[in-house]
Amino acid sequence: MRYILGIETSCDETSVAVLEGRVVRSSVVASQAQLHAQWGGVVPEAAARQHVERLNPVLQQALDAAGVTLTHIDGIAVTNRPGLVGALVVGLAAAKAIAFALQKPFVGVNHLEGHLYSAFLTEPDAEIPFPHLSLIVSGGHTELVFARGHGDYALLGHTLDDAAGEAFDKTARLLGLGYPGGPEIDRRAKLGNPHAFSFPRARVEGWNFSFSGLKTAVRREVERLQQQNALDEATLNDLCASFQQAVLDALIEKTVDAAQAHGVDTLTVVGGVAANSALQAQMRAACNQAGLHLKIPPPKYCTDNAAMIALAGYYRLLTGERADYDLDAYASAPLGS
Ligand code: KG4
Ligand code: ZN
């Protein structure tokens, strides 16, 4: 199993990657974020059409950048769950066609398992430390996962309502900022005061999270400020900083507590929101204090990419796992399924 081809089309990034063993030889991502920005969020039908248009050129680019042709590929890993079904089937059909043409094995990968492996893409020579704890924070997910070994995961907690990235995106929208909202809130938060507004930190049972109350509190504050004609740039930055700090407080405290309660010494933070600069800095400080090793992938591997899918698939292919040509796509699927 020398060269693995990874294909990811679960949401609004069309991505193909080539791994040589565990080493990333290429990872090409064509983001549709600009297209969906006009609608303020991902439109599933438009996403699927874009994948159809972009997948072949992205595949060719990934092969060229890795200096290989399809004939070099030994196995294929494709995201088949969870995600937008119309988007997933585009990548899945491509994976099956390539597998059939080359007569090579392919496997379906759970998108969340891909995110788990993203933390280890930059250290191909290091053993993956098991057990470890992972906080997956993206546009669609906020999950705390106890990873015992390859393919062996326990979901400790999840969001009861909005995902962390969804909270960033929805809050950005009500502040009149663009989509996706995370990067813009991150940027503005650096210019604002995180203590300017005191937004609620939801107290949720167990290892779960909740962000919808926070979003409502921001909306009320925005309405009040608008009535007073007081929503200027500086106030907007303060709102961003205060909202972001409320999300971070909830994420960091619970995640570090969970890591300690489960006796792990390594924590990973993955998914689009892991690119947040304040989350990285504050999580690092909290982990230093708690004596935890923290791994956060570089931004290009935080957001959706096929390299992480290829790495997850690599371990599955190594164990002899093989998918059949009737493999389906699923909108929702628990990790480990
Ligand atoms: O992992 P991802 O690319 O897609 C999903 O699987 O959902 O994550 C996208 C999410 C979006 O909600 C986006 O606003 C958020 O990640 N995001 C950020 C930052 N960069 C991206 N959130 C906070 N701060 C950032 N710097
Ligand atoms: Zn994702």
What is the strand and helix layout of this fold?
Layout: E1 3-8, E2 13-20, E3 23-31, H1 33-37, H2 44-66, E4 75-81, H3 85-102, E5 106-110, H4 111-118, E6 132-137, E7 142-149, E8 152-158, H5 164-174, H6 181-189, H7 212-227, H8 233-261, E9 266-270, H9 277-290, E10 293-295, H10 299-302, H11 306-318
Parallel strand pairs: 1-4, 4-5, 6-9, 9-10
Antiparallel strand pairs: 1-2, 2-3, 6-7, 7-8
The chain binds 5'-O-[(R)-(carboxyoxy)(hydroxy)phosphoryl]adenosine and zinc ion.
Key descriptive features of the protein:
337 residues; 2 domains; binds 5'-O-[(R)-(carboxyoxy)(hydroxy)phosphoryl]adenosine; 11 helices; five-stranded mixed beta sheet; Nucleotidyltransferase, domain 5; alpha/beta; binds zinc ion; 45% helix; single chain
Q: What's the CATH H-level homologous superfamily of the largest domain?
A: ATPase, nucleotide binding domain
What general outline do the C-alpha atoms trace? globular
How does CATH name the architecture of the largest domain?
Answer: 2-Layer Sandwich
The whole-number mean of residue pLDDT values reads 95
Strand content: 15-25%
Distinct small molecules bound, one entry per kind: 5'-O-[(R)-(carboxyoxy)(hydroxy)phosphoryl]adenosine, zinc ion
The total count of helices amounts to 11
